[in-house]
Amino acid sequence: MATAPKTWVEWADFFSKTLIATAGLLVSAATLVLTYAEKQRAQAEQALATRRNAEIARKADARIDEASHRDKARFILDQLPPDLRERLNLQTAIDYCNDPSETGLRMGANAGLCRNVSKLGGERLAASASSATQVARTAVTQQDPKAFLNSPAAAAQNAGVAAAEAARPAASGRWFAVVGTLPQSAPGAVGALARQLNARLQGAGLPDNDVHVYRTRISNSFALTSGTDKSEEDARARARMLRRAGFSDAFAQPDRGWSRADDLR
């Protein structure tokens, strides 16, 4: 059994041993704390590295998938007739120029894309104006708006309008569901077509007086729309419904300063 120190030498020896033991315990405790902290840090770094590697792998897979989809799309396009391939390529460019999130396409070095699309649209409008006007007048005489709206002349006119306006930013957040467009050289035909089309769309379940006439500011055309101002989502949904109803070339278009011309109806 240990006895208490009696002399100052024994007390000194006791305190010395106590301090050494205490120091040893503190060192051991500090070592344990540092070891635990180091282990936690190593685990955190490993987890971070794992997440980084997973993100790098995900991006690499996405690039591979994108390249694969691009190759498949290019292969499919190569199998199409030249006129349909050209039309799809033009529509893709128009969609990019109409996308509000792709504003960079209208600025800097990329601005040339939309300018070229717009120029091509103007050329198409000039080339198709005469035939579009003639086919529209014939359709009015036959009281068959689809005879014009589903014709190659109308398809060329519609593509020309959408392309001609592609280089300009939208004038507002409005969108339109466009059934078809006509040259401004056919004001009589556009009014008659609007009235005949309105009767047809009532048969498809749309309300009376659903068809409206707009003057386009950039492409110098008339547009027949289903309804008036819409959101992009609603305009696209209405255009899809119109295509299902048999108006094969209906499309959604952002507002670029269009003005209503319902007095022509």
Quick take:
This protein is of the alpha+beta class and 265 residues long.
Written account of the structure:
- The protein has 265 residues and is α+β, with helices and mostly antiparallel strands.
- It has two domains: 25-79; 102-264, no CATH class.
- 64% of the residues lie in helices and 10% in strands.
- It has helices at residues 8-79, 82-98, 111-142, 145-149, 152-164, 187-203, 232-244, and strands at residues 175-183, 211-215, 221-226, 251-254, 259-260.
- A hairpin with a 5-residue loop joins strand 2 and strand 3 (221-226).
Give the key terms.
265 residues; alpha+beta; 2 domains; five-stranded antiparallel beta sheet; rod-shaped; transmembrane helix; membrane; Sporulation related domain-containing protein; transmembrane
How many domain modules?
2
N to C succession of SSEs: HHHHHEHEEHEE
SS element count, helices = 7
Computed structural class: alpha+beta
Helix content: 55-70%
Give the topology, please.
Blueprint: H1 8-79, H2 82-98, H3 111-142, H4 145-149, H5 152-164, E1 175-183, H6 187-203, E2 211-215, E3 221-226, H7 232-244, E4 251-254, E5 259-260
Antiparallel strand pairs: 1-3, 1-4, 2-3, 2-5
Helix pairs in contact: 3-5, 3-6
